[in-house]
Amino acid sequence: MDISETLQTLYTATVEQDDGTYQITVPEREIATGTLAEDETYRVALISTAASDVDDTETIGPIQPTDHEDQQQDFEGPPVEEGDRREVEIENLGDQGDGIAKVERGYVVIVPETNIGDRVTVEMQQVRENVAFADVVDDTPHGEV
């Protein structure tokens, strides 16, 4: 699956019914980290959680504010580089079962062979504008012996 360079966030949510409408709840951390803002309009791409429903050539389209498309960010580029090491906590699992963590500015890091709640040290292998792919280099949390 190709991931668009304009992807702002990636998380798992359930579509819920409420008085004749259907809603997807945005995790509080998305607002707290500044990844998303209240009262903004976003484009949303939905991907089935059933792995058999996902075409490997599928592209996740742009997810960005539509009200302020010309607004400049205070930063340029990803907050990590290839070869960087970071301690991360796996917050979600992607459709293929890979762990999803976040670093500065809500930047998404995808880490294979991890589970929700794992705290691991990873090394960035491939860095894109909106997402990095990393491998675990140490799975012993800091402070443990």
The biggest sheet, with number of strands, parallel, antiparallel or mixed sense and barrel status, is:
6 strands, mixed
Number of helices, counting only DSSP H or I runs of 4 residues or more: 1
Distance between the termini: 39 Å
Query: If you average the pLDDT, what whole number results?
Result: 77
CATH fold call of the domain at 84-138:
OB fold (Dihydrolipoamide Acetyltransferase, E2P)
Question: Residue share in helices?
Answer: under 10%
In spatial order, strands of the major sheet run 5-9-10-8-7-6
Describe this structure in words.
It comes from Halorubrum salipaludis. The protein has a domain at about 85-140: OB fold (Dihydrolipoamide Acetyltransferase, E2P), CATH 2.40.50. The chain has 1 helix and 10 strands, in the order βββαβββββββ. It has one helix spanning about 30, and strands at about 1-5, 15-20, 20-25, 60, 85-90, 90-95, 100, 110, 120-125, 130-140. The strands form 3 sheets. A 6-stranded mixed β-sheet has the order 5-9-10-8-7-6, with no helix packed on it. The longest helix is centred in the N-terminal third of the chain and has 5 residues, at about 30. The protein starts with a strand and ends in a 7-residue tail after the last strand.
